[in-house]
Design brief:
The chain is mainly α and 291 residues long. It has a single domain, classed as MetI-like fold (Orthogonal Bundle). It starts with a helix and ends with a helix.
């Protein structure tokens, strides 16, 4: 019976395993192989070049920009999205009814098209838009997508707006798992509103916060659509991301071998960064009794 159950389990898991092998494992192995070649995405033949692609990538200004921009986006996106999703979760959790209705409303930006959102924002920030026309009348002239700091900020704001509802769902679930008796006991001990949040709600929300933060940090290494539509990685690599760099090298410069090397470097940088972040979060959780 145990053997039959194992076979049944493998049978049910087989669609996902086949999907993963075809669309993830095989492309990963193929990408690793291509990273040591000079394939141009068109030619039927290609030559082995050893580690030349990796050496070139490590010296590339575009790769350097993609590496540092990931952390710049992180500094903008993470505080914004965590604060906004926490605020939404606390607000929805405090509602007496229709919680699901409001959560779905906040969740809609996450399922909306990133291309459409980016095009709308691009129109709003164009030179002749009503916003910029008004600002110029009062003496403010900002090239929102042509200035390094503002372009970074705009992309970070769009990403925070997009993911707030999704992370609020996770945090709302965590809030619902906190027993009301804990707050009642704290009230008897004279715990105030702000102390209640920092000393009770936030520590007990750790599992949901942990998940939210890991997902949010991962997002900063995979930004593409918004940057592609709004800035194309500019100005002067100011918003260039790993995905943008890989796309540009593979499909614009037709250097698929080099792009594969950049993709592997990006994967390594992402893995190491997320590992360090995860360890720091686990230490914070351990200080609050989560082992």
């Amino acid at each position: 019976m145990k053997e039959n159950n194992n076979r049944l389990g493998w049978l049910f898991a087989s669609p996902y395993l086949i999907y993963s092998a075809v669309f993830f494992l095989i492309p990963l192995v193929w990408s690793f192989y291509l990273s040591f070649t000079n394939w141009d995405l068109i030619s039927p033949t290609y030559d082995y070049v050893g580690f030349d692609n990796f050496i070139k990538a490590l010296k590339s200004a575009g790769v350097h920009a993609a590496f540092w921009n990931s952390y710049k986006f992180m500094m903008i996106f993470i505080p914004l999205v965590v604060a906004m999703s926490l605020a939404v979760a606390l607000l929805v959790h405090s509602l007496p009814k229709f919680k699901s209705f409001f959560l779905v409303g906040f969740f809609l930006p996450y399922v909306s098209s990133g291309v459409v959102t980016s095009l709308i924002v691009k129109g709003l920030l164009s030179f002749n838009s009503p916003l910029n026309t008004f600002l110029r009348k009062i003496g403010i002239n900002i090239d929102w997508l042509g200035t390094s700091w503002s372009a970074l900020l705009i992309v970070g704001l769009i990403m925070a707006w997009k993911f707030t509802g999704y992370y609020a769902l996770i945090l709302t679930s965590g809030l619902q798992n906190i027993e009301q008796e804990v707050y009642e006991a704290a009230a008897i001990d004279g715990v105030t509103g702000s102390q209640r949040f920092w000393k009770i709600t936030l520590p007990l929300l750790y599992p949901s916060l942990y998940t939210t933060l890991i997902l949010a940090f991962g997002v900063t290494f995979g930004i593409f659509t918004e940057v592609y539509q709004l800035t194309g990685g500019g100005p002067n690599y100011a918003t260039n991301t790993w995905q943008m760099e890989i796309f540009s090298q593979a499909f614009k410069n037709l250097q698929a071998g080099y792009a594969s090397a950049v993709a592997l470097i990006a994967a390594l940088a992402t893995f190491i960064s997320i590992y360090i972040i995860r360890k720091l979060l686990e230490k914070w959780g351990a200080r609050n009794g989560w082992e």
